[in-house]
Write a structure and sequence with these properties.
446 residues; alpha/beta; 5-stranded parallel β-sheet; globular
Length: 446
C-alpha cells in the first residue's frame, strides 16, 4: 500500500473546505485552489467566479442541524432554515476557526489536469493553473460542485420566443419579474421558490410541470421535515410506507392544488421542499400548467392546448455535471453519470477522488465532511481500497439499487439517502482499516 505524499484540491466551496480541514488534521501536504476570492462556492451571492446560483431571497431547504458540519455546528442563534448570507458567513467562520484560509490559494483556478509518469514508476498529476504555473501532486481531489453549469432544454423547443429566457442559475431577484407575465418551468426546489417569489410581484405566474413530484412543507408535526425518520435502522420499504401515511395526513393529494399526480411512489424521486408553494397555489397566485409544447412569439403554448401570453420564461431544468479541467476523453459524466466507488474514488484512476459529487436526500455538507475524513485516512495509510474487481462489484450493486428505486432521470444518476450513505461509508472504512492493517503486517513479516 502506498502512502500519498501530496494532494491537490480543486475548489473551496462547502465540500472543498471540508476536505481541506480533514487533510490538515491528518497532516497531509496539499494545495487547494479556488477560482473566487472567498470560500463558500454556490452559497456566495454574486460570487465573482460566476458559478453561484444563489439569489437574493434564497433560504436553505434543509434544516440547520442536518446541514452543519459535525466538527463545527451552526450557531444556535440561526433559525431552522437560515438565509444564504448566514450560510456563507458560517463557511467563512469555519475556515477562520480552524485556521484554513491560509491553506487556500484564492483567485486561482485549475485549467487542466492530466496523469503523467512520476517517480518510482508511479503516475502523478500535472496541474496547470490560471496563473501559468504547473504543480505536481500524487492525489487529485475534485470538489468543484455540480450546480454551476446550467442544463437547458435539449433539444430546444419548437418555435421562437420574443421575451426573456433565463436559467434559474441566472436568476438573482424577484425585482426582475415585477409586473411581468412569468412562466417558471420545473418542479424542483428552485422552481418552487422562484415561482413563489414571482407570484409576489409578477402580473401573472404560471408553473409548468413535466411530471408530478411530492411537495413537502418545511415543517411537519412541529419539526423540520428533514429531521423526521433520520435513521437507517428501518428498512427502506418500512420507511416508505410510514412516510406515505404521514404525507397523506399532512399534505394529502397533491392534485388538490392543481399539480400533476406523481407517477412514482414517495421516495422514488427527489422530493421538493417548499414552505409556501401550496399556499400560493391555494390562493390562485400561481397557476399550474403542463409541459410547454411550443414557443409562440409573445406567448407559450402548453401540451393541453392552452396558450398564455408571456414576458419571461425561467428554466429550472437542472445542471450538467462537467469537469472543464479534464479532457472529456479521460473523465466525463455523460448524462450526469460517473460511476464511483462510494461516490468518491474513480475505479480506474485511484489517484483521483471526488468530494460532494452526489445528490442526497439531505444536505451535502456533512457527507462531504465524512468523505474528506475517509480520504484523509486513505492518504495517511490508515485505510486501504479494495481491489479493482471488488470496487467495480460494489459500484454495480449500488447502481442497480439506485436505478431500481429512482425514476430514470439525469437528476437521479448520483442519488443517495443521507443516513444510509453515511452508515455504508462507516462500514467500508472499517473494512478498509482491516485491509490496511493486514498490508502493514504483511510488509513487516517480509
Amino acid at each position: 500500500m502506498t502512502v500519498h505524499r501530496r494532494a491537490c484540491v480543486i475548489g473551496a466551496g462547502s465540500s472543498g473546505i471540508a476536505v481541506v480541514k480533514a487533510l490538515a488534521d491528518a497532516g497531509i501536504d496539499f494545495d487547494c485552489f479556488e477560482k473566487s476570492d472567498r470560500v463558500g462556492g454556490n452559497w456566495v451571492f454574486g460570487n465573482k467566479n460566476g458559478m453561484s446560483a444563489a439569489y437574493e431571497g434564497l433560504y436553505i431547504n434543509t434544516s440547520r442541524e442536518r446541514m452543519q458540519y459535525a466538527d463545527y455546528p451552526m450557531p444556535k442563534s440561526y433559525p431552522d432554515f437560515p438565509h444564504h448570507t448566514q450560510i456563507a458567513a458560517y463557511f467563512d467562520d469555519y475556515v477562520e476557526h480552524f485556521g484554513l484560509r491560509r491553506r487556500i490559494t484564492f483567485e486561482t483556478s485549475v485549467e487542466h489536469a492530466e496523469l503523467v509518469a512520476g517517480s518510482a514508476g508511479r503516475s502523478a498529476w500535472r496541474v496547470r493553473l490560471s496563473n501559468g504555473e504547473e504543480r505536481i501532486c500524487d492525489m487529485l481531489i475534485v470538489a468543484n460542485g455540480h450546480h454551476w453549469d446550467p442544463l437547458w432544454p435539449d433539444p430546444p423547443l419548437p418555435g421562437s420566443f420574443d421575451g426573456r429566457q433565463l436559467h434559474a442559475h441566472q436568476y438573482r431577484s424577484k425585482d426582475e419579474l415585477r409586473g411581468k407575465r412569468v412562466v417558471v418551468v420545473g418542479m424542483g426546489n428552485s422552481a418552487m421558490d422562484i415561482a413563489v417569489e414571482s407570484s409576489e410581484v409578477a402580473k401573472r405566474t404560471f408553473l409548468s410541470a413535466r411530471r408530478g413530484v411530492y411537495v413537502f412543507p418545511k415543517y411537519m408535526f412541529g419539526k423540520p421535515v428533514d429531521q423526521l425518520f433520520t435513521t437507517a435502522l428501518l428498512p427502506w420499504p418500512v420507511r416508505q410506507r410510514i412516510g406515505e401515511a404521514l404525507y397523506k395526513i399532512a399534505v394529502g393529494d397533491i392534485e388538490r392544488y392543481g399539480l400533476p399526480k406523481p407517477d412514482h411512489r414517495l421516495g422514488e424521486a427527489h422530493p421538493t421542499i417548499s414552505g409556501r408553494i401550496l399556499d400560493r397555489l391555494g390562493h390562485g397566485a400561481i397557476t399550474p400548467k403542463p409541459v410547454i409544447a411550443r414557443l409562440a412569439g409573445d406567448a407559450v403554448e402548453f401540451s393541453d392546448g392552452t396558450r398564455e401570453e408571456c414576458d419571461v420564461i425561467v428554466w429550472c431544468t437542472g445542471y450538467r455535471v462537467t469537469f472543464p479541467f479534464f479532457d472529456t476523453s479521460f473523465v466525463s459524466a455523460r448524462d450526469n453519470d460517473l460511476p464511483l466507488f462510494h461516490r468518491v474514488f474513480h475505479p480506474e484512476h485511484t489517484q483521483l477522488a471526488f468530494i460532494g459529487l452526489l445528490q442526497p436526500l439531505g444536505a451535502i455538507m456533512p457527507i462531504a465532511e465524512a468523505q474528506g475524513k475517509w480520504l484523509a485516512k486513505h492518504l495517511r495509510g490508515d485505510y486501504a481500497l479494495p481491489d479493482a474487481a471488488t470496487m467495480n462489484r460494489t459500484i454495480e450493486h449500488d447502481r442497480r439499487a439506485m436505478f431500481e428505486r429512482y425514476v430514470p432521470s439525469k437528476r437521479h444518476m448520483m442519488q443517495v439517502d443521507f443516513d444510509d450513505y453515511l452508515r455504508d461509508l462507516d462500514r467500508e472504512i472499517e473494512r478498509g482499516a482491516k485491509r490496511a492493517r493486514r498490508d502493514r503486517n504483511g510488509r513487516q513479516k517480509t
